[in-house]
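Below is the data:
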Amino acid sequence: MTSPPMVGVPALLRCRSGVSSRMVSPPCWRARSRRISQGPRTKEITIAVTVAIALPWLDAKGIQVPLAGNGIPATLAGVVAAVAIFGLIGVGLGALVREQVATVVGLLVYLFIAEPIVTRIPALSSWTIYLPGAAANALTQVAQANQDFLPPWQGGLVLAAYGLILAAAGTFLTTRRDIT
């Protein structure tokens, strides 16, 4: 049930005071939070401020961070690509499972418990390099001891294939489901 409209009170005052005719937040709050969180350069500004604070602070403590050396740009690009592809994998799995908690828990249990156990079995090492976690490690060039990986570009292709297959399966299943 909705309350009667507030006569004589401008909409902006209602947003600032928290008085709303609905049980949810007023539309102006949602619009304001969208403008703040999805600004044109929010991510770039956040990264620039973090680097501008972190580099001088680390330098003052005697820690040198070479931004162009030691393969850091390639690793950073691999991390960005892996995060984007894992986002695609998450969306695809979420569309397939239709339960957010089960999707997140299942993916985390697989990536951090099941796959590391399987990759430590020497008899299976010939095909475990093609699993999603190992492909992501190859893409980001982050290697654990005693484990073989694909070259970074192949790891990226394998991980992208997982993402595209799951996204396509999720899209196909979602378009076939009954909406009611």
The chain has eight helices and no strands. The longest helix spans residues 72-97. Residues 64 and 79 are 21 Å apart (CA to CA). The two ends are 24 Å apart (CA to CA).
